[in-house]
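Onboarding guide, step 5: your first structure request.
Type a short instruction followed by the sequence, for example:

Predict the 3D structure of this protein.
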Amino acid sequence: MSSDTLAIRGGTVVDATGSRRADVIVGEDGRILAVEPGLDGDRSLDASGCIVAPGFVDLHTHLRQPGHEEAETIESAARGAALGGFTAVVAMPNTTPTMDSAAVVREVQELAVGVACEVFPSAAITVDRRGEALAPMAELARLGVRIFTDDGSGVQNERLMRTALEYAGSLSHLSDGQPLVLAQHCEVDSLAKGGVMHEGEWSSLLGMPGQPAEAEELMVMRDIALARLTGTRLHFQHLSTAGSVAMVRAAKQAGLPVSAEATPHHFTLDHSSCAGFDSAFKVHPPLRTVEDVAAVKAGLADGTIDAIATDHAPHTSQDKDRPFGEAPPGMIGLETAFTLANSELGLPIEQVIGLLSWRPAAIAGIHGRHGGPIVEGAAANLTVVDPDAEWSVSGAAMASRSTNTPFEGRKLRGRVRHTILDGEPVVIDNLAVR
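The system replies with structure tokens like these:
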């Protein structure tokens, strides 16, 4: 072995190829040297009773920088991501200014140098996310952008969305032959506008304006048709309704190039959580019915939904403490994603890890560095999780600059013990060291 090797000892290795009992040795170049029982190194991390897995990948993180550093910075979000087992996150473009130009994308890339996880900027589909003119996708693809989204807003104009899909489909030569992905926040403004929670029995009881499920489902239906028409890869963000899940399932069975994600809050909480008017439970798309929650869980179980994504959306206490109808939507979620999936989905640990690791890595086009098999020569981007550890959620104890978690005080099972980025531990025994 070369000098300064790191041994991850005593765990069960789980990746897309299966599981086996093995230790992992990492070299000083940040690559895996060996995977087999009985290994030792110059330094070691204890993985007894734990799963050693490829690092998690979040397709949907709001870093807030540039523009809203009071709520989050790239550094603080990356630290929270590492504590949650993520070695890579895809940064959403709804910053100020919007990530719709080479200058802003480069700024994010520069700010992300040396932080605790790798940051991959997405970029807006349209200029300033206004839905009026396409952003310069070719220029941004040359900078490494692989996902385009107006997240926070759906592209309302059908012709413009068709043009965006056709244009993106023509640019694979700028991304090493890999298709660019358009990711859609499905929400029809004319139906959703003014709604602050799901339209249903609880919105009626609470006297709050609601957003009907159809506001999401009509755009899912439209974009499935556009994916069929153009043949371009399309990713549906934070699916929340049974109808949406059913349509994506049918689209996949028809062989269309679509994928989908779901958030932990959409498979653990329903609209009755809003009964106390606590704005921590306000999110877009809104928390739906018990039946919708069951459909999202079923979609994750059968592969209709490809990935768990956090939609980590930090807000200051000053903003979130406003009345429910006036408060901004969003919840933090980087540090609780794995433990909620492990506690609530009832799936084998291998499947849970796949939903957080290699499946989102493939969608993001980064499976060469993240989410790949744990084998000799691979990049050592790893997470070590204890599936049986119990802990209680505290927003104040998290790395984020914001504390807006809806799971405050909730006891959960499963926790990240260590996270390794490019061969170096960034989390050791639940503590961030970068």
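Each response can be followed by summary notes, for example: The first strand starts at residue 6 and ends at 9.
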